[in-house]
Amino acid sequence: MSIKLRWGIIGGAGIAVNAVMPAIRHSETSEIVAVASRDREKAKAIAERHEIGNAYGNYEDILADPQVDAVYIPLPNHLHREWAIRAAEAGKHVLCEKPLALTAKEAQEMADACKDAGVQLAEAFMYRHHPRWERIREIIAAGEIGKVRALRGAFTFNNAGDKNNIRYRGDWGGGSLYDVGCYPLSAARLLLGAEPEAVTVLAQFSPEHDNVDMMASGLAEFPGDVALTFDCGMWASFRQAFEIIGADGRIEIPHAFITGEDNAGYTVHSHGGSRLEEAAGTNAYVNQIDDFARAVWNEHPQRFSPDDAVRNMKLLDACYRSAKEKTRVTLA
């Protein structure tokens, strides 16, 4: 492809340097032309590592760069709204790390700003761009496991000893629901094609970690009396699994959200027995970048619209309210 979408990276977070930037470099649609950090030396080091032409010591310069068509924002959560809106006002398309914002209100403001500016906005939930999720939806639709009765999801890890981690800054949008709980919640919405009617969440808020939720367990009630039970945390052994329980079978996904190219398979149990569905080797980050670029070029609509991100934020708002008030919260 002779014409590529030209990216600017706002910030040097690990997810950017280790996952998204390599994905852009390996994609067929895109290239990185600039990177910005508030530490210019850090920006220069990243630019050298990834063979990027321009390194800026502030975020404003990358928005002023006429070579930049789109920006990727991996900043701490409390900065997503500001820099997404500023990027839109500068005419840049925006791919922003999950969660899109701190609240549904902020997410809606970001979506409105990008719509008004005529630019694309997407939430960087890379897992949804792995083709296995569409295949799993096909298996469910075909009735192989019968009517879906329940969902179970988990995403936990433990780095509680790293007290300086940005995940443990309450005013920066830290906490396990924002960081990893959003994954099983998003996956349940994706698979059921519906929005939950109510949530109940119990969380462990840690004074040692700026009172962010270090662990959370919850129940999300969907139409038809189908529920997702989930847990998420930054204070427990590493797990990332999802299970779909049907009347006649079930699907187990052991590496549900973060996968390599050789561990994306899952097991389908049904009346016909059990089988391992091998998922083709693919890089979900690359798929995400290519899908975004093609939406920018109007080759097809975005697979996941900004409205989807707003709805996921409404769910996260309800989860936090439930956890803080220790009550069941209904959603409109």
UniProtKB/TrEMBL annotation:
Lipid biosynthesis is among the record's keywords: no
Domain Gfo/Idh/MocA-like oxidoreductase N-terminal: 5-123
The entry's keywords: Oxidoreductase
Stretches assigned to the GFO/IDH/MocA-like oxidoreductase domain: 134-252
One Pfam match: GFO_IDH_MocA_C3
Stated family: Belongs to the Gfo/Idh/MocA family.
UniProt-recorded name of the protein: Gfo/Idh/MocA family oxidoreductase
